[in-house]
Amino acid sequence: MAPQELKRDLQNRHVQLIAIGGTIGTGLFLGSGKAIQLAGPSIIFAYLIVGIAVFFVMRALGELLLSKAGYQSFTDIAEDYLGPRAAFVTGWTYWFCWIMTAMADIIAVGVYVQYWFDIPQWIPAVICLIILLGLNLLTVKSFGELEFWFALIKVVTILALIAIGAFLVVIGFKTDAGTVALSNIWAHGGVFPNGISGFLLSFQMVVFAFVGVELVGVSAAETSNPEKNIPSAINKIPLRILFFYVGAIIALLSINAWTELNPAESPFVKTFSLVGIPIAAGIINFVVLTSAASACNSGMFSTSRILYNLSRKDQAPSHFAKLNKNHVPSNALFISTLVLSVGALLSRLIPEQAFGIVTTISAICFIWVWGVVLICHLRYKKTKPELQAKSKFKAPFTPFINYVVLALFAIILIIMLFAEDTRPALLLTPLWFILLFVLYSTNRRKRERNSTESTTAT
Questions:
Q1: Which CATH number covers residue 296?
Q2: Res. 193 pLDDT band, cuts 50 70 90
Q3: What does pTM read for this prediction?
Q4: Are 306 and 219 contacting, i.e. CB atoms less than 8 angstroms apart?
Q5: How many CB atoms lie within 10 A of CB 153?
Q6: Any stretches that span the bilayer, and where are they (predicted)?
């Protein structure tokens, strides 16, 4: 029989690069084009605001994960502080979050491949899914290695963009679109060219850009030294936000006027094509393609692990807890991949709208999960002060900052209600939560009935 415990094969370098990979994905490489169209240069402030909020979420999650050795995910945390119903809803919602996110990434794979080949989006999406499934069925160390190199490609690319941008600003390089200069940031209508409304409407895509940052927490059960590796990865998040988001956007807007960027295309590809290096755009397109594949790979990893944890708690079918000979939850991986293939179907049915729909749903569900983490942290401080007193990784500025970030998330949801692009998904998403509450109540009554019948028979 296959061992029924996950293997702690992820080393510090894996965890560090998984953390970076989680904060750099399709939301930045592709979604930033739409965000820039909405907000103009003020998008820089949107990334800063959401990035800081996510950092405090991660500090709360880090303290909670390290407060008890048995925690494997935030479903365990939700069960301890909010009860089994909250754990069930949060666990399945997190699975749904990553399904939606990975669908967006699969759709993006199809978009990027069309840069070279005039083929339907769904074909490269299906090929990518099959390859990633095969890789994920290997050991968790294989996943860690793959993410390590994927994330390294992203880091090198963004650092190169920032370095090239700085050099071109210094020499006053001229492109077909004009002179490269920092003044391009405010020279085309100011920093808030579309007013406060445009700035606020960009927050949905900015939130989506940060989804996956909590993957460090999901990997805790398979990390060799969580007490050292998790705090180290979380504490580097602010620096990564400054470098990889703010730095990259400043470089993009210095080289391009924001008005020249197409929201349907990657601004990174557009920017490198302006630099004048013939093969640069193709290279960057390859990089953003690997980024989308990386994010989808993370989606497969996280969805399979969350199903594994739900199954072990009798909140999902028992066969999802089965591990193969490589200590990988293969059944959970297969079913997650099957559901992910819907992204390829959407690419075929509604190629123009597919990316926007799934990113909106993903952002909404991730706000729920991040909100649950903050609420659990408030409960932790109130109900277990002795654990909080012994913590070596205390979240700063709590409980005040928890309430501030929760209020920000509520404001973002209200903004989505007023935006035509996001309103339909926001109004439909509650159906998912209603379904989960109904399923939990039904399953609980069934278990109670079976327990009563068993007792009576005895």
A1: 1.20.1740.10
A2: very high
A3: 0.84
A4: no
A5: 16
A6: 15-32, 38-58, 92-113, 119-138, 150-171, 191-216, 237-259, 271-296, 332-350, 356-380, 400-419, 425-442
